[in-house]
């Protein structure tokens, strides 16, 4: 087995003579700064630890400052030791930052299989710093040993928070919808606080919005059994022949046919060149027009079965390059060499393109929501918990509008769609009609697009032009997506925090929910949202208010007529023991006296677009001494666990084929430091990552 090039313990080629000839006095601070900068270069650019053994780089450094270069040990072993020391020092800085946060620490976690076949768990922390800014820090990226059971995952989470010293500061945990995560978080919260009941642990389990959107997109594209489709696709891709792969995807209608065309083009360099040559010839033959931008330089995008948004991007790019694709297919079908032709069953006809346009338009809200909420949360938006419930309402409304637009009961079902479960389809229609309380409006109706002539047509013309089987295909896709989204929409009720995030947003408030849930059957949702918020606040936040209110009430009652401690001794003797007991009892707070009722009853000045709700609550913390703490905790919760996915992507860049022997603890230190550097939490060598 070839040895790891980083296992060589030789130092960089610095001669003793070079060290002794250095006469310039170099301070220890300069040396430490240079060592940290060298370490930051390795961490941030994913360089191997032996990078400074490169003779060209080393002589460049000597040319810049030979005296300083001579004072630094550049060997890989020394750099690894320096990495460990740096990690410990910077970890204390991050720990102090979290302890000084004005919100609880919320966790997000996910699992990953690394390129060197190790199971890795990523754990990140989310909180508001002293200035009310949303912060994210990678806390762990380490091996997950054993089976991925709920108990094992719970132990890993607890070990992480115990190691960081934030056991008593944990708020909620964000994770995907796997069943083992349910078990994990039940055990985890009961370890943190044995008094927590099962439903209370479920209230603090936040389902990843990105994972929900992924499931909805896959249900739209691949039907109810999208997981089985994914497994079958992976098996065929790995073990099947090209004909088997094409036949498998062809079953998915126009999307499958488009997949096969793109895969055929991208399957070899020769076919890619052939595709490019065909569209260039067509470009030369066609007249040049100023109003259209050339798209022949753009590459076709090939989707994968795991990420639905890759299919959206494939369709979107194909529609953009429709002229190129059609020109290529026409020339390809005339090729005298049959082996170079795309199978005729995969040729997209006009009706296929029309359906692809409709599929693209229906998927676009899902894609936009994913892109919006997976970003770093800034100014209280773009990735905060309050965006989940409105986002799901938005997509549900879109799906219901699409369904209403295409739902024509007079359509005859084509023979190819007779295999559909018509009773299930009818049941779904009834569910949608019961839930739907809004009519399509110009703001929520399907958008018009400008890239394809088909998109320019009005909706009635587009509807009439679609063949019956295409209408039925699209309708069933919408039904599948709606059913999946509604399934997880109902699960939002297991935690009061989703609705509370909307209620406590000063720009939205309870009035936003009342405007959305205006159907008589939905009035109970309003009641449950307020009751859930009150119960959660009372359980975890109002104790301090009760104590403070008791003191205020007692002070208010202390007058010569009521408080025996303030009454002259002669008058105290005239008061019976019963009178003293009665007047010394503080009056119990009613629900109308609570901070929540005060917040709900007061008219809140509407925030301007983009104004940060966190800053609003900080400005009004005197009015709401405990409710503002709940609001800040909620606004620190991210909508997704996307930061864990980012950590995995960056770790994959570190674990190149030449570095697969890297120890998992070294990988964790590199990735944590990289995250802290890029989030501006620490300096290395006095330099921030984004400093110019």
From TrEMBL:
Residues 595-677 form the HAT C-terminal dimerisation domain. Residues 433-453, 548-572 are annotated as: Disordered. It is found in: Nucleus. One of its GO terms (cellular component) is nucleus. Pfam families: Dimer_Tnp_hAT. Residues 440-453, 563-572 have a biased composition (Polar residues). Residues 548-562 have a biased composition (Basic and acidic residues). InterPro entries: HATC_C_dom (IPR008906), RNaseH-like_sf (IPR012337), ZnF_BED_domain_contain (IPR052035). GO terms for molecular function: protein dimerization activity; zinc ion binding. Its main location: nucleus. Keywords: Metal-binding, Nucleus, Zinc, Zinc-finger. This is HAT C-terminal dimerisation domain-containing protein. It comes from Apiospora kogelbergensis.
């Amino acid at each position: 087995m070839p040895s790891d090039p980083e296992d060589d313990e030789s130092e960089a080629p610095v001669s003793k003579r070079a060290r002794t000839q250095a006469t310039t006095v170099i301070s220890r601070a300069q040396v430490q700064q240079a060592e940290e900068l060298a370490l930051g270069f390795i961490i941030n650019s994913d360089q191997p630890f032996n990078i400074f053994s490169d003779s060209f780089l080393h002589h460049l450094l000597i040319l810049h400052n030979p005296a300083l270069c001579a004072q630094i040990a550049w060997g890989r072993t020394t750099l690894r030791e320096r990495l460990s020391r740096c990690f410990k020092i910077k970890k204390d800085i991050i720990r102090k930052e979290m302890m000084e946060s004005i919100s609880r620490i919320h966790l997000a976690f996910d699992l990953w299989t690394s390129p060197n076949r190790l199971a890795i768990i990523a754990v990140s922390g989310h909180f508001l710093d002293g200035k009310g800014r949303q912060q994210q820090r990678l806390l762990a990226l380490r091996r997950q040993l054993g089976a991925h059971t709920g108990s094992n995952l719970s132990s890993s989470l607890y070990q992480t928070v115990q190691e960081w010293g934030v056991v008593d500061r944990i708020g909620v945990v964000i994770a995907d919808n796997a069943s083992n995560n349910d078990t994990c978080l039940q055990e985890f919260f009961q370890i943190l606080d044995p008094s927590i009941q099962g439903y209370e642990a479920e209230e603090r389990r936040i389902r990843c919005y990105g994972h929900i959107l992924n499931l909805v997109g896959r249900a739209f594209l691949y039907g109810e059994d999208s997981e089985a489709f994914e497994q079958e696709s992976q098996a065929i891709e790995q073990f099947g022949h090209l004909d088997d792969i094409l036949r498998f995807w062809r079953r998915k209608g126009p999307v499958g046919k488009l997949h096969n065309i793109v895969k055929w083009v991208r399957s070899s360099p020769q076919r890619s060149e052939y595709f490019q040559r065909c569209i260039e010839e067509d470009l030369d033959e066609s007249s040049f027009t100023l109003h259209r931008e050339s798209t022949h330089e753009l590459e076709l995008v090939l989707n994968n079965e795991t990420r639905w948004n890759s299919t959206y991007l494939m369709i979107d790019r194909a529609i953009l390059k429709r002229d190129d694709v059609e020109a290529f297919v026409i020339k390809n079908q005339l090729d005298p060499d049959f082996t170079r032709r795309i199978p005729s069953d995969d040729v997209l006809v006009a009706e296929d393109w029309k359906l692809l346009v409709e599929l693209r338009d229906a998927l676009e809200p899902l894609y936009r929501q994913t892109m919006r909420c997976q970003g770093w949360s800034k100014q209280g938006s773009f990735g905060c918990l309050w965006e989940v419930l409105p986002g799901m309402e938005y997509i549900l409304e879109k799906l219901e509008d699409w369904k209403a637009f295409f739902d024509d009961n007079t359509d005859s079902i084509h023979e190819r769609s007779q295999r559909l479960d018509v009773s299930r389809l009818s049941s779904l229609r009834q569910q949608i009609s019961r839930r739907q309380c809004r009519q399509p409006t110009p703001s929520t109706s399907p958008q018009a697009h400008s890239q394809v002539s088909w998109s320019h047509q009005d909706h009635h013309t587009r509807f009439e032009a679609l063949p019956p089987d295409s209408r039925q295909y699209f309708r069933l896709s919408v039904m599948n997506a709606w059913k999946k989204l509604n399934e997880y929409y109902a699960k939002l009720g297991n935690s009061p925090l989703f609705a509370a995030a909307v209620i406590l947003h000063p720009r939205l408030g309870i009035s936003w929910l009342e405007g959305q849930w205006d159907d008589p059957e939905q009035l109970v949702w309003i009641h449950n949202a307020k009751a859930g918020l009150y119960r959660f606040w009372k359980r975890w936040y109002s104790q301090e208010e009760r104590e403070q209110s008791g003191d205020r009430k007692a002070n208010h009652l202390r007058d010569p007529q009521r408080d025996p401690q303030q009454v002259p001794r002669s008058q105290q003797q005239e008061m019976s023991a019963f009178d003293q007991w009665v007047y010394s009892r503080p009056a119990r707070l009613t629900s109308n006296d609570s901070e929540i009722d005060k917040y709900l009853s007061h008219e809140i000045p509407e925030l301007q677009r983009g104004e940060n709700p966190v800053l609003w609550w900080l400005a009004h913390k005197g009015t709401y001494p405990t409710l503002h703490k709940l609001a800040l905790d909620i606004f620190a919760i991210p909508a997704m666990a996307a930061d864990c996915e980012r950590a995995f992507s960056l770790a994959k860049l570190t674990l190149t084929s030449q570095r697969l022997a890297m120890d998992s603890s070294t990988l964790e230190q590199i990735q944590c430091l990289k995250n802290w550097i890029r989030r501006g939490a620490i300096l290395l060598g006095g330099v921030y990552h984004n400093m110019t």
